[in-house]
Amino acid sequence: MGAQDFVTIQNEKYTNSGANAVANLQTRADGSVVDTDWQDLVFRKAVQHSHNLSVSGGVDKTNYFFSFGFADQEGIVLSNELKRYSFRANIEQKVNNWLTAGFKSGVTRQSNYGPLTGSNNLSGNVFGAIRMLPNVEALDPTHPTGYNIDLINIRSLGRGANNDVISNGIPNQLFVLENDRRASNSWRLLGNAFLQAELTKGLNFRTQLGIDGSYVDDYLFQDPRHGDGSSANGRVSQAFSPSTRWNWQNILTYDKVFDKHNLGVTLVQEYQKEKTSFFQSQVTNISDLYFQENIVSGTFATPEAYGGIGENGLASYLGRVNYNYGGKYYFSASIRRDELSALAPGNRVGYFPGASFAYRISEESFWDSMEDYISDFRIRGSYAQTGNTSIGNYPYIGSYGSGLYGTQNGIAYNNFGNDQLKWESQTKTDLGFDVGFDNNRYNLSVAYWTQDNDDIILQAPTAPSLGIPGNFVNKNIGRVKGSGIELTVDANVVRNDNFNWNVSANFSTQKNEVVTLVNGQDITTAYNVIREGESIRSLYGYVYHGVNAANGNPVYESYNKDADGNITETILIQADLAKQQYYVYNEANPTDLSTVRALSASRDRIVLGSALPKWFGGLDNTFSFGNLDLNIFLRFSGGNKIMNRTKADLLGMTFNNNGTEILGRWQSPENPGDGQTPKLWLNRDALVNNPDFASTRWVEDGDFLRLQNVSLSYRLPSSTLKSLNISSLKVYVQGQNLATSLVIAVWIRNFYRLLYRSRIWGRLQR
Description:
By secondary structure, the protein is mostly beta strands. About 10% of the residues lie in helices and about 50% in strands. Strand 2 and strand 3 (about 80-95) form a beta hairpin. The longest helix is centred in the last third of the chain and has 15 residues, at about 745-755. Residues about 755-765 have low confidence and may be disordered.
């Protein structure tokens, strides 16, 4: 809001709660009114550019490739920036007629600069920016820092002509962005070396050793003069997080053609191990502002240190057979044996099979009469099972960790291990067909898939009297199933010597359901629930009924339920802001506050919708005219719900700025407002807005259609480049995330609902 609306709204919060008005317009010496646009100060138009140079070639029995890349991206928030340098080098040498050696490497140096973003940090950039007071200046030339800082509470934004300081002591966001510093510098090293030998005709052996190293150096400085750093008299924090994974593979392949029979056999042996560690040092009470580039010995009073280490390994063996007959019948089968260090020795080994088939019907002789119209037609299907390796490093071990006894360092039991844990598994099947028309100028692919995630590790509760850390034990209990369809269309719509138009489109659906939880018990958070029979992490909250036009109180739905949890009765209740209590809402007598009934988190919250999109896809168009190429890519998604927590923040009841939607608040029975925004009341956000729980007031449709990318490029004629010994050169301009629309997305949602209700879809779901 602007300054005038801000003053009106804030004073209404105070006076409605029985306090004196505190907000006032501030006038400069020239008579102008202070009306600071903090969004304009904090956000900016960002520029990004990237460059890549590569060289490839070969001499005699040696092939090589080198590339160097540079990217520089400004963030839309002040002080946010990314710089990346990358280098790749590949060399392959044919030692003799049966042995080849090679090496591939990649090095990336990336630097990220930016402010804190978390809502728990008062200096968080967006958190603070939307709350800044518009009726105060951002700068104050009379202050030693040059910024508008409160003289009484130096952590807070200056109060200007207001009689109160900004709530929660939020700092001047411009100061934070221009003086606090946060950086993350990382090195990523990728490399592998290999030897490949042709043992005999059709039989090849390859051994390769690879390494993936990530080395991240994080840095934080918070200025002692203002903001989060003022209470600590300055803070410097540095953390180093190295991670190294090595991988050794031995691959034996055999390929043989017998007349129309094509056979391929692959055997793989693979070992991989990862080790991670973490070290952080944080110092406060810095002796001088000068020491902000690094932790410097003797320049601080209070040091702290943290750290940790972990490792895991995986040993795998794979066998796979591929067979096809005359390019008509295809079959593949595999079996994988994995041994995971995170599981107990007796359960470390898991076996995961897979199989697939395809039948190219268009290769049959009876298809000859149709090949002018349908040039290719095949049916296909697959079955595969995989295991989840991301279950932590030591979940089966009963372990000890650091602990304090008073002020003394010690160790304490911190993990109750379960040596009965086994592999989490995922089983996926699909069945579909591919068809090509007009000599494959137009192609269509359709597939239906199912996915079953079983033996998911969940925390089973234990009695507190047992003394188990966290009062839980990990067990293989959970199960989640999913299904959907995938459609892909590729078409060369127009093709001639001067103009070409190619279209690629895809449309996918997904249906997700939680099947099994610990004793059927819900897993709930403030906004979500994991519940048997529902989509995973569905939005979970209250049904908001609107505003009581008689007194401005918010009204919600409350329920009576039977023993199975089914709703048997809906009762409207209103939150009285003055008495801080919920009462039954009597439509015939809306000011009646005689019957108390609480809004219960356990009884009155219901599933408000799936947080996962039910459909999504994209449409890619490429137009070529001479040496000009135009690409337009659109992306869409929907069928889900989102919790708009930012909207709730913008309607807060503290002494902060608000969004313009708050102007529709209830003011009187004669001026009831928009029917959705209750009466304002200072510091009673939990009753006025209830923002810490999901509700239909904050939950919105997640449907969107986005113009994701548009690029226009020009390829310089080869005749022009020939004299420069350059084979190709292209210049281009590109725009990303240019527009987002909900209109077409709603149409796509209706199409999905029609498809979902059709008989064909119904049969697939069964």
